[in-house]
Design a protein that fits this description.
single chain, mainly alpha, 2 domains, 3 strands, about 75% helix, Multidrug-efflux Transporter Regulator, Chain: A, Domain 2
Length: about 130
């Protein structure tokens, strides 16, 4: 093989190798960036989830709904644990404000309130999965 052709082929191989290294480095940077952005999205989803279905104490529910804390305690018996409220400890209960508001708004329409519950349960299932 002619030396000139050999040198040209060697040059092409070296250039291809350099481009491959650059592409690999770029791909790694892109993968790192995608991983970083995925973590940011997950973090934001967690923050948003706190705002979509805030769980608050009975005094906050009473204040927002303009009812007494005793009324909240009375209504508590009509609500579903794990949906309308969660028991954190024997003395600490947190109420799902959005579903409590929906329950009050749709007291005469159980089907509408059931849809809100199903939406919440679907949301929770997606968050867990």
């Amino acid at each position: 093989m002619d030396q000139k052709i050999f040198d040209q082929l060697l040059s092409i191989v070296e250039e291809t190798n350099n481009r491959l290294k650059e592409t690999t480095a770029t791909n790694q940077q892109l993968c790192d960036r995608v991983e970083y952005l995925s973590q940011q999205v997950e973090s934001l989803e967690q923050k948003i989830s706190l705002d979509l279905y805030p769980h608050v104490d009975k005094y906050t529910v009473a204040q927002i709904l303009n009812i007494s804390a005793n009324t909240v305690r009375t209504k508590h018996r009509q609500w579903i644990e794990g949906v309308h409220y969660i028991t954190v400890s024997p003395r600490v209960v947190r109420y799902n404000l959005k579903l409590i508001e929906d329950w009050i708004k749709n007291r005469g329409d159980a089907t509408a309130h059931r849809r809100a519950i199903e939406k919440y349960q679907s949301y929770v299932a997606r968050r867990v999965a």
